[in-house]
Amino acid sequence: MADENLVEKTKPADVIEAAVDVAEEAASSVKAKFSKALDDARAGAVALGKDLQEKTAPYREKLTSADLAAEAKAIGEQAKERALALAAEGKVKASDALTSLGKVVSDNAGLVDDKLGAKYGDYARTAARAIQETAAKLESKELDELGSDAAEFVKKNPALAIGAAAVVGFALAKLFTGGGSDEEA
What string of DSSP letters covers the chain? Predict the structure, then answer.
C-alpha cells in the first residue's frame, strides 16, 4: 500500500522530469562511451601508422626513387650492350654460314652438271653467286641498316614476314625442347 500512496502522490510532471533526467544521464553516458571509443580508434590508427613507418623505414632508406632509376638505367645500358654484342656476333655467324653455303653450292655445281645437266648446273652457280653476294652484303651492313631493311621488308611483305617468324619460332621451339614428341614417348 505504501507503493500505491507513493504513486498517487507522484505528479505526472515529476515522472516526466525524472524520465528526462534518466534519459539525459543515459545520453551523457552514451556520448562519453562513444567519445572514448573514437579516441581509442584514433590512438590505434596513430599507433598503427607509427608501427608501419618503423617497419618500412629500412626499406625506404634502401630504395629511394633516384637510386632505383639509376639502377634501372645501368641495367638497361648493360642489356643494350649485351644485345648489340650478341647481334653483331649473330651477324658474323650468319654471314659466315651463308658464305660457306655458297661455297658448297658452287663446289657442287660441276657435279650437278654431270648428274642433271648444264642447265641445272648453271642454276646452282647462279644460286651460289646470289648466296655469296647476300653474305657479302650482310657482312658490309651495320646493325642499324639491317634493322631498317628488316622493318622495310616486313612493311612490304607482312604475310611472308609472319610466315618466316612462325617457321623460325617453330624451329627454335624444336631446338630448345630437344625435338619434342620423340622424347615424350
Answer: -HHHHHHHH--HHHHHHHHHHHHHHHHHHHHHHHHHHHHHHHHHHHHHHHHHHHHHHHHHHH--HHHHHHHHHHHHHHHHHHHHHHHHHHHHHHHHHHHHHHHHHHHTHHHHHHHH-HHHHHHHHHHHHHHHHHHHHHHHS-HHHHHHHHHHHHHH-HHHHHHHHHHHHHHHHHHHHTTSHHHH-
